[in-house]
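User: Hello, can you help with two protein structures?

Assistant: Certainly.
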Amino acid sequence: MSEILAPAGDRNSAVAAVNAGANAIYLGLKEYSARSSAENFDYENFEEISKYCHAFGVKVYVAMNTLVKNGELEDFITSAVKAWNKGADAIIISDIFVGKFLKEHCPEIVLHLSTQAGVCNAYGAKLAKEYGFDRVILARETAFDDIVEIAKIIETEVFVQGALCTCFSGQCYLSSFAGGNSGNRGKCKQPCRKKYSIDREGFEDSAYRLSLSDLSVGESVERLIEAGVASFKIEGRMRRPEYVSAAVKYYRNLLDKSGNEGDLSNVKRTFNRGNYTKGLAFGQDKSFISSQVQGHIGEFVSVIKVENGKFVCQSRQKFIQGDGFKILRGGEEVGGASFLCDVKGGFALSTKARLKNGDKVFVTTDTALNDRLLSTERKLPVKVAIKLFAGNNAEVSINGVKFCGDKPLESAQNRPLSVEEIKNAFRKIDKYLFDVSFGAVETDRVFMPASELNALRRNAYKNFYESLTENFHKANAFDLTISQKISCKNTKIAAICTSLCNLNADIGILKLSNFNTDIAALTTNFNGEKYLFLPPYLTGKEVEEVKKIAPLFDGIYSDGLYSVALAKELNLPLFAGTGFNISNRVDVAICNAKYIALSKELTLSEADGITADNTFYLTAGDIKVMDLIYCPFERKCATCDKRENYTLTDENSRKFPIRRYKTGACRFELYNCAPVAAATHTGALVDCTLQKEPNKLIAVCKDNKLLRDYLKNYTRGHSEQSVF
């Protein structure tokens, strides 16, 4: 049976998900959640909601999917074990190496690999399975053909509804470097939802150039079922309970084939950014980018007609006080409005905006709908059978779970208990959401005070509820001592360049603009180790093309975890790139790579604590802050200027370079508005992707003063100040 997995940012959303028919929920604790702005749960509240869900057979997954720094490692492991022991059905982790370590010491724990790990092809799935994960949550960008292949390897979870991240999963650093708040640590400030312009014809005006519409797979969920997907995930731990309810009911009815036309309308009215896209699994469609409207757009209901100073909407739909609306003109938002009054044939709006005839009206708050969505209360069917016989202890059976009273019953001297009195007592459900029906209720004219009968009911119901919610997880704490070779001096320089010709570096990492390029022409007069740069996202078909050229190199450098399994198959050394987000001693110890680039979100002091003779730190050069798997130019291929480089400009006039490359399809990288200049005590990683004279940057990369004089406009990145 396919699983509908719902978000639960707080208790109300969790209850709404259960009432709407979810099979599972996912939630975060107060720490280590990628949605730290959600209310989240402390352990006491988590244990209570876990029992509530388990009573209805609903599973509870705990998201601990943030980067874990070395100083947080012990607390992270302790928290994961504690969450498991408090009733979690699975722990969602993004750090695959910490997950492997945890599974080795607590094999009973069920682990799901977060979408933040970026599993997008069969090689990533194989690695997750090898490391002990029970399920992978696929990157939202995963191609449909790869979904099919991955589902053959390991249990698979796919997003079907909710917000889409602009950047490829787990590789976004824009919030981190542009604002000091790390999305990888749950603090994203969503700079992708701001306005930008791009120096290409038709894109020069400021708009939401990076903002994506919300995902809604809808009826195409049938194709995912056929592909073998086990779980259908609804994004939205920051959303309100009514949205959770509407989205769950929409997919519940689709899967049960009992839906109606109002289901999607209900979802749109509770939250809808950009009128939805089916996502990259089904191809980039025209509504993929929401460049004109940011935030909740609601559902179209009417157009404005100005009559006698009133803003009138003709509509058969009924609205009431408290309903809210958004007004669009030419696709752009011009203001908000609220219900004013009924008028003949429709209703009038109250607004401070100066509206015009023809302005489009979208409902964003439907009060009556919200009340209906949250009015459903799921109850647990219980069938109660009772035996009250003189000389015997009372016997109560609830759905087959038996409970006995603590003393023999007495025959009645005057008025015995009637069957109806016994049933009436058990119709009282106390705090439990039981829907009571009765099997056999038998008695031979016993006497039992009302207080004792009520106590029997309370204890029987308590015993039954505990039998449903009893948690048998008892994982033990373990020693976190890890053998690691620390601080053997690494003096090597590794440089990422689009050409290695005449390069002066120990390790040259060739970043191709096109995978169908003459490799020999880009590597002349280079005498160091040659590594092929692989991006974090490759489809299965693209991996097959890479395998043809990889043997021309001494190894592969990659930002994607899939490359661990790929390098092993190719029998080539691996250089684990900054995209691996290596942040702690477990990562360094377990990562099976010849060379390791530490996370670019670590300070120098944090990096020093986990340096080894094969580690590198991003010391100088360009800072890639996003990988875009879609076309930001809306796939207007017929008018494409096919340039390799563009500039994205924000509302503060900061300029962020964009680089196009091809792996068959066009992909794009976004870079920080300033290069990095940071001292280091381990190997120096220099990113020269955008540099016209890489050797000049390499020559000064280890001298902090010379480096900063050379770059002039630079940032120290996170080398000195820890990221939140």
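That covers the first. Now for the second protein you mentioned:
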Amino acid sequence: MNSGTTRKKRVNGETITIIVILAIIILLFAFFLKDVMLPLFKLQLDNDLDGAAALLKSKGFVGGISVILIEALQMIIIFVSAEFIQIASGLSYPIYISLPLCDIGICLGATVIFLLVRVFKFNSTTYEKNRGMIDKIASNAKDRNIVILLYLLFFMPFIPFGAICYYGASTKISYGKYMLTVSTSAIPSVVVSVLIGQAGKLFFTNSIPLWLLVLIVIALSVMLFALIYWFMHKFVLKGTDKTPESLFFDIFFMVVKLFQFGKKRPLLGDDLIITADVPYLVLANHESRIDYFYLYYLSNLKSPSYIFSKIHSIDPIFRIFQKHCGFIPKKLLSDDPEADAKIEQMIKMGFPVVMFPEERTSPDGRTNPIYENIGAYCKNLDVDLVLVRITGSYYAHPMWRRRAYSSDVKVTVDRVIKRKEIASMTDEELNSAIKETLYNDVSLCNDVTYRQNGKAKGLERILYRCADCGVLYKTVGRGNELKCLSCGSVHTLDDKYRFTDNIGSIPGYYNAIRTLEEKELDSLSLNASVRTRIFNENGIMSKTGNGECTLDKNGFRFRSDSEEFSIPVKELRPLAFTCGKRFELYHDGKLHFFYPKEDPVQVARWALIVDILKSGQTILPS
């Protein structure tokens, strides 16, 4: 018998074996489908862990087999979450049973994937969606050994196990090494899910209180995150750490995408950006708190470094991402030589930099004044300038509304100013070009229809004063109406976010309030008893307390038992604020949060008064 015949018989034998294995698996799925698997999937859709645990217990041995099959199916399908069945098994069986069941299910799913890829050349579209992240880890890993690489991938968050198995099966790794890697590397994640299920069982049997259950879940999640963090440091972040090429950069925006699930992607008009030489500086207007995410979709030739408010460094989780993503923390509305140095460093490394020169989100949908000499600053950086206008994001998630709506957002590269052209312009010419290009008024360019019945909810946190009777802090936004509780006047927003009366628009109402404030400016004196939180240069809270803030035409003053300072108007910077909560400013390098004890909506008034004192400008038409 010649070698060709022998090889042909061996191939035929392997094919028959594979077909038999797949047939057995399909029959097992079919056998358990009606009585166990379909009910379990329904319970998963309802997020009913108690019902799932009860069903598995009632089925005994059959329930255990179902755990294996469902785990395997979730591996193959990829987009179905595996944590549900793992936690349910932890609720139903002791850990020495639930852990092997889940691991066997993972191995079964991995085997099917191996057969699908190696024999039938199957290509998963869900795997393809994760391929970019997987390729990036593969290119950055210090050790190119495929086994070590697969271990790294299994430790990475947000990459489904099934996608990793599709990747592993597409390489030249042997089945034995492939299975050994899959079976062992999935254990940490499965252990966490099963232990959460075990803790849930103790809670449901009244063995532990709710607070202890929550503490256990948090502790297990932190342990898993710490393990992932250690692996990334040890093996993945080679030469890319603290830059936008870091894997953390992709993970950060992947998390943001999850939070934006169901929202529309922005419409892009970014053809001009290819004319800019890397590195370049991106300047954009700032309508909402998630504008940085919309700019993520720009066709950057290289991932950019984002300038974020240093306030976000207070959050320890964000501080980790900020450190490893190459984000640049900057003191809001304050001089920050350290941030300037980091911007120059990123540009020297060849990364674009994204900046919002307003340094705060728009309260009324019009671009805030850009007070700094932005022209001179851009000239000193000596790079191309990309000017981007964002429209529509104000209505998607304005600063005064907690809830975000799905909205049509446009991100347009309106102008690219080349280095040579910048060098030929005066500072004032460049200032004017930047301000004119970035300026936007949402009330003038809104051609979108908004059907939501809740457009005015929270609007009183910006439109804090009645435009009709002038009374303070009596306006209330309900449904699509802004009503004054004092005089009873009602202003209704239509489907274009315009008031149906002569007030016109949100900027128009804001103008009316500004006019009232300007008339009273000479005699105005704002006073507020406040709670304070003070943070040091590293974003660590160093002090809390109580005090009193005062604002008049001469400036801002603060007094407490331990601190007292004043800032004259000429040195006062615009106030950043969180609607209905606090306003903030820097003094002596420290970040001060001020929380009014009464009428917290007044923080918008403090910010507007400072703008009036600083601007000396006529009101822009609405």
